[in-house]
Structures are given as structure tokens and as C-alpha cells.
Automatic annotation (TrEMBL), chain B:
Keyword RNA-binding in record: no
Occurrences of domain ABC transporter (ranges): 5-256
InterPro entries for the chain: AAA+_ATPase (IPR003593), ABC_Ni/Peptide_Import (IPR050388), ABC_transporter-like_ATP-bd (IPR003439), ABC_transporter-like_CS (IPR017871), Oligopep_ABC_C (IPR013563), P-loop_NTPase (IPR027417)
Cell compartments where the protein resides: Cell membrane
Name of the protein this chain belongs to: ABC transporter ATP-binding protein
Length: 304, 328
């Protein structure tokens, strides 16, 4: 292959010495950048542990999750009951790890759904603008103006509060923020020169939306998603508190917390509300840390 | 020689709430195969809108091609559907821009951005496209092209990015390359390299270039033919030697006069009096009349037509020249 002017590039290499090094593979760069954020690493390890323990719940747990023992109710933590027992004498540790399955599934499932809907609506509105934007955003306004807790209660009352229903309901009520965020990002990104440049080489609209603009908007979307995960875990707890969440005897962190919301229980067995509450706190916190780490690691502008 | 691109009475207007803004108002332009045509004019003269019209990338609404034809190889681009245009963009006509710093996608590697074009237009598979991408980068003068394909744009300098843009634009051997002020944002030494590169490539692949610029130095360097635009219209068209020997239109004379020169010992640069009028306030007659030192009564009442002069070798839109009887 002929070269038009080889000495130029040689000169530019000298001026720009970091170009001499062989670039690492993208995965390597990603991992290195993620590892730099210690909080994110701690969060990732913690979340991974929770997920693993939840998956392996039947193997790990010392008791069946719904086995009642009324003689040993509200026991403090002991060798037999590691984190104590609840009002019916069920092992709290066992119920926590089984509850993790439900809570995490609801949280991640519905956030995934919400993000997909939010990105689609926001991207279409922001990219095409005009009448498409007006129609979609008014629809978003309508959804936002319905108080979501009443919508949740209504849907759950009509269709029941099974796991799938909860995931669908949370996804359908929590995508609006993401849609607005994505629309804003797209509005500013679509007028950038690189979008025009990719149009001039014949790139189709859907490709511009998903491979050119969306990756540029990923940072804020990831942060929004991690915040949503926390929000959904808390909403599930709130629904359970109203008795509309996951129904006992199936455990979720939310309905365990609700079960503990009782004056006498809180006084006589403070560990009972403490453990599910603390677990929710730690999980939401580590998801947020991971989100921060992901955002930085995925941004090519902060390579080193 | 056959005409590769022919604009016939192209009119691109912007529909604003109150007024209809004629950004491009009846442009005729011919580009032969292998020819480099420079489109010159002040900011706001309609150069960029003309080029975007050829690509059919006018932001719409409010912009619209209201009249005229864009014949590319005899095919009228105005009548094509968007899908058909996508096949032409990048494959037959491609474009490079003024700002190399922002015209590459910051989150995609350079390789990904070239490979995408090759896979779409040339129907190559990924590894073929990658090989071709490396070849293209070598062609535009990168010696370590193999490593460069996995590099992100922010690690490159402005001149390097503009060469990457040229590599992307030339990857499918287009018949026409539209360069919208490709060197304006670069420093002088890099400018020369980029212009040389474009000249070499156009010769090698017989690619026509439509060079949009306001830099007459660049024009004299690379263009075969020059088209001068003012207020959305062509005011003069000539081969580059003729134009620099003897500019005919008072506007072209004014433009030439405003080039700083080392030989003349002037305290102040010459400039053309006044500003380009905004499109909603175009004067009735000749659009340059209010700023023209030679304007007479007729200029203020009637719009001159683009007339053949000097035996048809060049054209000018001015009552001072050519057939004095011809009016629009």
C-alpha cells in the first residue's frame, strides 16, 4: 500500500509519544478503570456475594424458609438461628436469603424493563423531534401526573401481586424519568457534528440512534438506572407494607420489614427489622457505587 | 468530459413562521468528472446549504428544496427516497467537515467508524472491512494504522482526525467528495498536508471535489474551477487562472482585494463596505448593489442574469459585463 506522506506521521508520533504504546484491548482498559474506583469494587463484590447466596439459598439455608416454630419466636441471634427468629419463629437468615431472590429479581427485572421502555421512548422523541416528540412527551406527562402509588395499588389489586405482575407494574410506572433524561441527551447529541457526519456516509436512522448516539448518553442512563434499582427495592417494601407486595409466606426484604413494623416487635426484637433494613441499605448503596464506577469506566474520554 | 453533478436552478428555502428565507436561490453548478470545483463566498452566502442540499441533509422542517434539480450521473437526487439516498451517501458522494475535533464519534474507535461504512456500502464482512480500514488509514498517511484502528478519536490531533475523516469519506471510492471548509480549523502547515492529500487522492481515484471555502489561498492551490456565491446566488464562475488574472464581478474583485499581502505596504486591509444582507431583506435588484462601488440605477431595479462572457468560457452576474441587453 502506498503512503502519501509517511514522514508526517512519524513526526506526529514524536510529538505525541503516548501513541507509540500499543493500545490495550477495550476490555482491559474497562477493567483497569473500574478497578481504580475502590468503592465500586467493594460494591460489586458485595452485590455479587448477595446474588450468589440468594441463588444458592436452598443449599446454604439451615432451615426451610416457611418452617414455623412458635416456641422459639423472636429469638435473638444464636448458634441455631444465626440472625434470630421472627414472630412465627421462622429463621431470619433463611428468610433473608430467600427474600433476596425475590427482591433482587423484582428490582433488576423491573429496572431493566423501565430502562428499555425509557430509552426507546426518549430516543425516538429526542432524535426525531417535532410531532413525534410532542406526542410522546405529552404521553409521558400523563403517566407522570398519575400518582404512581395509586396506580400500583390498582393494578396489583386487579391482577394480583405475583412476581411477574410486580415486575411489570414497576417497569410500567418507573420509566418516565429515564425517558425524559434520554430525550434531553438525544436533543443535544443529535445536533452534534459527528451525527451529521455519520449521516453523510449513509448511516440509517436506527443505527445512528443505537450505535452512535446512545453510547454517548450511557453515562447518565446508568446512573439513573442504579438510582431506580434502589427506588424499586424501596417501593416493593412500601407495597409490602400496605400488604400488596409479595405475599407471605414467600419472603421478600420488603414484607419482612413490614412484618417487623410493630411496636412490641421493635422493642423486644430490634434485630428483626434491623437485618432486612440494613440489607436493603447496603444493596442500594452498592448498586449506586457500581453505577458510578461503570459510568467512569465506560467513558472513553477518561481513558487513563 | 461528462458532467458528474449538475445543479439546475436549485432553490433551498427555510420556512420560518413569518418569512420564507431563500438561503439558496437558483444555483446552477456543474462539476465534471475528476474536476475540483471551489465554491467561494462570505459566511451566509449559501455555500454550506448548497452542499447539504446535494446530500439531501437539509434540516427539515424548516428547510426544503423547493425547486430545481440535482442531477448526479443523470439521476435527479431531489426525487429519490431517503432509503435510496442512504445508498448514495458515503458510497457515491461523501463529505468532510470543518471541525475535525467534533466530527468523529467520541465513543467509537476509529476502526469501528470506518468498518461500519464499509460493511454497509461494500457488503464486506467484518474482517475484510477491518483489513480495508487499515489500508485506508495507511493511504491517508498513518504509518501505524494497525494500532490506530483500535484508538479512540480523542487521542488524535486535529490534523490526524481530519485525515481519519478523509479515510472514512474515501473508503468506498466515492465519485464526489464534498469538503466543507476542510482546513479552516487547522493550522497552516497541517492545512497544506490535508490539501495535498485531497489532491493526491482525487487524482488517484478520479474523484471530483466540491471544495467549499472562504479562503482564496486554498482555492488557488487546488481548484480547477471557481464558483463565487453571494446571497444564495452564483455571481461569477470561471476557471481558476482566469478568475485570479481578472476577476469580473465587483464582489469577486472586493474579495480578492481583502486578501492580506506581504508586498503591499498598507496600514489597513481593504474590505467590502457593509455586510451581507440577511435573506429576508434582500434588495430588489442586484443583491450586491448596496455594497457595490460601481452600482448604477439599473442595478437597483433589476436582477442581472448569470451571463456567458468571453465566448462562454466564464459566467458573471453583472450589468457591467457581457451582453448589455440581457436582463432577467
Amino acid at each position: 500500500m502506498s503512503q502519501v506522506n509517511p514522514e508526517i506521521s512519524q513526526k506526529e508520533l514524536e510529538l505525541n509519544p503516548n501513541l507509540m504504546e500499543k493500545p490495550d484491548t477495550l476490555t482491559k482498559i474497562f477493567i483497569r478503570k473500574f478497578m481504580k474506583n475502590k468503592l465500586a469494587v467493594v460494591g460489586a463484590i458485595f452485590l455479587l456475594a448477595i446474588v450468589l447466596i440468594s441463588i444458592l439459598a436452598p443449599i446454604i439455608s439451615p432451615h426451610p424458609y416457611d418452617q414455623q416454630n412458635l416456641l422459639a419466636k423472636l429469638q435473638p441471634p444464636s448458634a441455631d438461628y444465626w440472625l434470630g427468629t421472627d414472630r412465627y419463629g421462622r429463621d431470619i437468615f433463611t428468610r433473608l436469603i430467600y427474600g433476596g431472590r425475590v427482591s433482587l429479581l423484582v428490582a433488576f427485572g423491573s429496572v431493566l424493563g423501565a430502562i428499555v421502555i425509557g430509552i426507546t421512548v426518549g430516543a425516538l422523541a429526542g432524535y426525531f423531534g417535532g410531532i413525534v416528540d410532542a406526542v410522546l412527551m405529552r404521553f409521558v406527562d400523563v403517566i407522570i401526573s398519575i400518582p404512581s402509588i395509586f396506580l400500583l395499588i390498582t393494578i396489583v389489586t386487579i391482577f394480583g401481586s405475583s412476581l411477574q405482575n410486580l415486575i411489570i407494574v414497576f417497569a410500567l410506572t418507573s420509566w418516565t424519568g429515564t425517558a425524559r433524561l434520554v430525550r434531553g441527551e438525544f436533543l443535544s447529541l443529535r445536533s452534534r457534528e459527528f451525527v451529521l457526519a455519520s449521516k453523510t456516509v449513509g448511516t440509517k436512522s436506527y443505527k445512528i440512534i443505537f450505535t452512535h448516539i446512545l453510547p454517548n448518553a450511557m453515562g447518565p442512563i446508568i446512573v439513573a438506572a442504579t438510582l431506580l434499582v434502589g427506588g424499586v427495592i424501596l417501593s416493593e417494601a412500601a407495597l409490602s407494607y400496605l400488604g400488596l407486595g409479595i405475599q407471605p409466606p414467600t419472603a421478600s426484604w420488603g414484607n419482612m420489614l413490614q412484618d417487623a413494623q410493630n411496636y412490641t416487635v421493635m422493642l423486644t426484637a430490634p434485630w428483626y427489622p434491623f437485618f432486612p433494613g440494613f440489607l436493603i441499605l447496603l444493596t442500594v448503596l452498592s448498586v449506586n457505587f457500581i453505577g458510578d464506577g461503570l459510568r467512569d469506566a465506560l467513558d472513553p474520554k477518561t481513558l487513563e | 468530459m461528462t458532467a458528474l453533478l449538475e445543479l439546475k436552478n436549485l432553490k433551498t428555502h427555510f420556512m420560518k413562521k413569518k418569512a420564507n428565507i431563500p438561503a439558496v436561490d437558483g444555483v446552477d453548478l456543474t462539476i465534471q468528472k475528476g474536476e475540483t470545483v471551489a465554491l467561494v463566498g462570505e459566511s451566509g452566502s449559501g455555500k454550506s446549504i448548497t452542499s447539504l442540499s446535494i446530500m439531501r441533509l437539509i434540516p427539515s422542517p424548516p428547510g426544503k428544496i423547493v425547486d430545481g434539480q440535482i442531477l448526479f450521473n443523470g439521476q435527479d437526487l431531489v426525487t429519490l427516497t431517503d432509503d435510496q439516498m442512504c445508498k448514495i451517501r458515503g458510497n457515491d458522494i461523501s463529505m468532510i467537515f470543518q471541525e475535525p475535533m467534533t466530527s468523529l464519534n467520541p465513543v467509537l474507535t476509529i476502526g469501528e467508524q470506518i468498518i461500519e461504512v464499509l460493511m454497509y456500502h461494500q457488503k464486506l464482512n467484518k474482517s475484510q472491512a477491518r483489513t480495508k480500514a487499515v489500508e485506508m488509514l495507511e493511504l491517508v498517511g498513518f504509518s501505524r494504522a494497525k494500532a490506530l484502528v483500535d484508538e479512540y478519536p480523542h487521542r488524535l490531533s486535529g490534523g490526524m482526525r481530519q485525515r481519519v475523516m478523509i479515510a472514512i469519506a474515501m473508503s468506498c471510492n466515492p465519485k464526489l467528495l464534498i469538503a466543507d471548509e476542510p482546513t479552516t480549523a487547522l493550522d497552516v502547515t497541517i492545512q497544506a498536508q490535508i490539501l495535498d492529500l485531497m489532491k493526491d487522492l482525487s487524482k488517484k481515484y478520479d474523484t471530483s471535489i466540491l471544495l467549499i471555502t472562504h479562503d482564496l489561498g486554498v482555492v488557488s492551490e487546488v481548484a480547477d474551477k471557481v464558483v463565487v456565491m453571494y446571497c444564495g446566488q452564483v455571481v461569477e464562475e470561471a476557471m481558476v487562472e482566469d478568475l485570479f488574472d481578472e476577476p469580473l464581478h465587483p464582489y469577486t474583485i472586493g474579495l480578492m482585494g481583502s486578501i492580506p499581502s506581504l508586498d503591499d505596504d498598507l496600514d489597513r486591509l481593504q474590505s467590502i463596505e457593509g455586510n451581507v444582507p440577511p435573506p429576508e431583506h434582500f434588495p430588489q435588484g442586484c443583491r450586491f448593489a448596496p455594497r457595490c462601488p460601481h452600482a448604477f440605477d439599473k442595478c437597483r431595479s433589476a436582477l442581472p442574469a448569470l451571463m456567458d462572457v468571453e465566448g462562454g468560457s466564464r459566467k458573471v452576474r453583472c450589468f457591467l459585463h457581457g451582453d448589455k441587453e440581457a436582463t432577467s
